[in-house]
Amino acid sequence: MPFVRLLAKRLGTSLIVLIGVSLLIFAIARVIPGDPARIALGPNATADAVAALRDKLHLNDPFLAQYGYFLADLLRGNLGTSLYTNRPVVDDIAQFLPATMELVIVAGIMMVALGLPLGILSARYRGTFIDHAIRLVTLLGVSAPSFVWAVILMLLFAYFLPIFPIAGRLSDSLTIPPHTGFLLIDTLVAGNPGAFIDAVKHLILPAFALALSGIGQAARLVRSNMVETYQKPYIEMAEAYGFPEKRIARRYAFRPSLIPSLTIIGLDFAAMLGNAFLVEAVYAWPGLSRYGVAVILRKDLNAIVGTVLIISAVFLIVNLIVDLMVSIINPRIRLSQRVS
Amino acid sequence: MNVPTLKIENLKLGFDTYAGMTEVLHGISLHIGRGEKVALVGESGSGKSVTARIVLGMLQSLKTARISGSVFFEGIDLERMSARGRHALRGTKMSMIFQDPTSSLNPVYRIGTLFKEVLMRNEPAITHEQVRRKACEALADVAIAEPERVLDSYAFQLSGGMNQRVMIAMALVNNPSLLLADEPGTALDVTVQAQTLKLMGELVEKHHTSVLFISHNLGVVREFADRVYVIYKGNIVEQGPTGELFDNPLHPYTRALLAAVPRITGGGIPDIADDPSAFLAPLVTHSGHSEKELLA
Amino acid sequence: MKKTLVILTRNPLSLIGLLLVATVVLSAIFADFIVPFPDHQGAVVDFVNFNKPPEWPYIFGTDLVGRDLFTRIIYAYRISLALGLVVLAIAVPIGVAIGLFAGYLGGWTEYVLMRVTDVFLSIPPLVLAMSVMGLLEPTLTNGMIAVTAMWWPWYTRLVYNLARSEKEEGYVLAAEIIGASRLHIMFREILPNCVPSILTKMTLDFGFVILIASSLSFLGLGVQPPTPDLGSMVAEGAKYLPDSWWLTVFPGLAILVAVFGFNLIGDALREILGVEEQ
């Protein structure tokens, strides 16, 4: 089946790229000035202790050997120990990643659920006031970094109009046993609908701040592609046959426009992974960001490499999914023979 | 006499641009009787394509378009009609086929889906099975051997000629009174074009569909049309029955057009002077075939 | 070129963009002459006037050590714009060149170059810059290095796609037939056709660099005090929300205004030059 082959090929490429990423980060991490062992042990450590740690961490070995040890560990699921938390990096990631993922996924849903219809609306009423208004708003959304929006939203809707809570994932009074790490799931699993609502309320502002830029991008992209599609002959044919205008907008003009948009939307979604850092900082969200920033500032090599690797892996997976979706939606890729 | 399917009276079209008003149609009149095949012949930019779109009501929504004159469809003045009423005619009593069949069919939907949408214009609640049945019948009418397979295919999987036949089938499946054909087959091979036009001719005759055939291709017009209107720069310059007009062109422009057709005997293509005043001579009609006479 | 400027001024939106950008650029260049407190860009303390809400002569208020916010914002613009210029001046030529080579030469060159590009593109932009920044000392220079390192791949991909389709065009074939060297074809034939897309992207990127740079410094990975920087100003001020709201709102709006202006122009340029949306 050509489909499976396509999937396998993409997986292969992604794997190669992931290895490249690991090499890159590893290289950067090893090139920095400063001795990780000394930093870890602090300024009062003896020279012997430092030397011993250096040996243990293989810091005296040639570069490729170090990379080899790293890969070997990686394949065993060992990303080393964080010098910051003194725990295996894998544990740290397992604790903080779900929070970030939850935020990013909800933001992603918002991006699609709000961005696409806005784009369709804008294209359908192109040239009118609605179009100009949407274009202005979406451009604004794209023009500020997520933390600016995070701050503005917090000021507007959590302080001056106290609708939403200010920070954090859950009110301090509540404790939910962690199963998946996703509060939206865990609260329901624990049979606590009140906590669910609480979690949702905490999610809305940060997710929206994160999504704003993506919504703007998606809307602009969809609009631009749809306006182009509207010029195509097959849309004129649909109009000549009197297909209802709403149907043309939502089905016949939208789907061919979606194809070029999807790849970029996938990229935007993945870019949100990076921006999540900014929003988490403002809302004190206990996700990978605070951990990530902390370990970067402390030059905690294992943790840095682990974090970046995981994030890149998620990025690649998202891109893979998007590419697959494009192949499904675009019949030209899916099929290759002529019928005639 | 029967009410003509289409009657256009003194139709004018202008576009309001930054540079002022650009006049495209200067008051054209034509009509098509029931079952008649009428050709509108002219070069690019003469205004023939916009005429068809005005009939369908597709230009009226453009903010810069200024239209005056009347268009009567089966006796009803389309200007008096509500927008909804007008819209309801599209795809049901009037349909259109386009120049490039493959790019006129939506590339991400199967032919069957498109057929369903077309059939829904007449029967909003039509079922899937009924769609299959009617579509297969229509496709069989245009001599497509495996209609089921075609219905399940996408336009890019089919050849140009096949897509052209699909378009004709779609256009006729709702049994419209008027078919507007905008340079059909121009994008195809000459032989394929000839085949499909012949097919189209037979079908419209069977259904007594009136046809407005827009073209710049005189050879095709000669084979297909009963009567011809020649249009030049937004004016009808000559009209008459096909045979007479071709054998004995009266207007200088028509003569130049016919002279410009390459002959199989060689001799090259003569130059047409760019804008001689002779082309702007008023309308010449072949005897007995002016609008007034025909509609009396 | 002149025609483009004329069209830009006709369209109301791009006119606004031009005005915004002009304001930002001019105020950055002539900062020393227009700001009320030129020395506040450095390490000045004024504990009499600290943490004041907007009032004359501190039109945007003062920060926690008494420095005029307006002054610091203007100087911060200067740094951001300089950063943008440097980053683009380095990243664009590198990215474009790699893209041309990969797109036109094909074969192993293409495969290797594009895989390397992919590696850089697979790390979310901010994360890559953060890592590089974090592993080096946070200074302005290192900031430039970090941002440049993550920027060039976007131009590579842009030019790569363009070069790949352009190389099928007639003029390239013609040049090949008359024996033009490959370098000539890449840089004198294909490249000029890529210029509109590259220019549009550069205009948009100016705003984008400001965005990324401010994000980096927001996280503490950018310039260090006392150098004024929009992102770190927001980060500092975020601790004192909502009471000292001006500490975050004005720098944030300053970012928004600058980026918005560049986006407006970039958008208009795109429409004029007929470039595809990226």
Give a short summary of the structure.
The complex is a heterotrimer of chains A (340), B (296) and C (278). Chain A has 340 residues and is an all-alpha fold.
Architecture overview:
The complex is a heterotrimer of chains A (340), B (296) and C (278). Chain A is mainly α and 340 residues long. Chain A contains 15 helices and no strands. In chain A, helix 1 (2-31) packs antiparallel against helix 14, helix 5 crosses helix 12 (254-283) and helix 7 (146-160) crosses helix 9. Chain B has a seven-stranded mixed β-sheet, with helices on both faces. Chain C is elongated and about 75 Å long. The chains are: A mainly alpha (340), B alpha/beta (296), C mainly alpha (278). At the A-C interface, helix 1, helix 6, helix 7, helix 9 and helix 12 of A face helix 5, helix 6, helix 9, helix 10 and helix 11 of C.
Q: Which features would summarize this protein structure in a list?
A:
heterotrimer; A: 340 residues; mainly alpha; 15 helices; B: 296 residues; alpha/beta; Rossmann fold; 7-stranded mixed beta sheet; 4-stranded antiparallel beta sheet; 11 helices; 34% helix; globular
Considering the protein shown, what is the CATH homologous superfamily of chain B?
P-loop containing nucleotide triphosphate hydrolases
Uncertain spans of chain A:
none
- What is the assembly state of the chains in this entry? heterotrimer
Pattern of helices and strands of chain A: HHHHHHHHHHHHHHH
CATH fold label of chain B? Rossmann fold
Q: What is the architecture of chain B at the second tier of CATH? A: 3-Layer(aba) Sandwich
By helix and strand content of chain B, what is the structural category? alpha/beta
Kindly, what is the distance between the CA atoms of the first and last residues of chain B, rounded to a whole number of angstroms?
8 Å
Q: How far apart are the termini of chain A? A: 21 Å
Biggest sheet, spatial arrangement of strands of chain B: 6-7-8-3-9-10-11
Gross geometry of chain A: globular
Q: What's the SSE pattern of chain B?
A: EEEHEEHEHHHHEHEHEEHHEH
Profile the largest sheet of chain A: none
Q: Using DSSP, what is the number of strands of chain A?
A: 0
Tally the helices of chain A: what do you get?
A: 15
What is the CATH class name of chain B? Answer: Alpha Beta
The proportion of residues in beta strands of chain B is 15-25%
Gross morphology of chain B: globular
Mean pLDDT of chain A: 80
Overall tally of domains of chain B: 1
Biggest interface between chains: A-C, 55 and 49 residues
